[in-house]
Specification:
5 strands; DUF302; 136 residues; ABC transporter; TATA-Binding Protein; alpha+beta; single chain
């Protein structure tokens, strides 16, 4: 099996809050909901202090889930839950003008589990995530 790239990626030139809103809308347009949200800057500042989170800049992790595909994946491979939801990262380094949006490549689920039943699901979810990124 060939090594899968870790993330599907795109870059937009806009402010961070607009990029987050656009990412949420693009995900929703492809049938994904956002189940979790982690503000890495805030979390690092709260836990480590001393502006530790400022080093990463704007960095938001969205836990995206398409319920239909999640159901199929769990049915095919019950342990898949440790790899769900699909994380989508919206990030802007300090001083950068562009915002990068990375989506977990679902092909990693197949590579990590070696479960053939996940191949079709990962391909379809990957196409939906790529379409969401393309709509940004």
């Amino acid at each position: 099996m060939t090594e899968a790239q870790v993330a599907l990626t795109t870059t937009v030139t806009t402010d961070f809050d607009d990029a987050v809103a656009r990412a949420r809308a693009a995900l929703a347009g492809q049938g994904f909901g956002v189940l979790t949200e982690i503000d890495m800057r805030a979390a690092l500042n709260a836990k480590l202090g001393d502006g530790a989170g400022d080093e990463v800049g704007d960095y938001l992790i969205l836990g995206a889930c398409n319920p239909g595909f999640a159901r199929k994946a769990v049915h095919s491979y019950p342990q898949i839950g440790v790899l769900l939801p699909c994380n989508v990262v919206v990030r802007r380094a300090p001083g950068a003008e562009a915002v990068t949006i990375d989506a977990m490549n679902p092909a990693l689920m197949v590579q990590v589990t070696a479960e053939p039943a996940l191949t079709e699901i990962a391909t379809e979810v990957g196409a939906l995530l790529q379409a969401a990124l393309d709509n940004l």
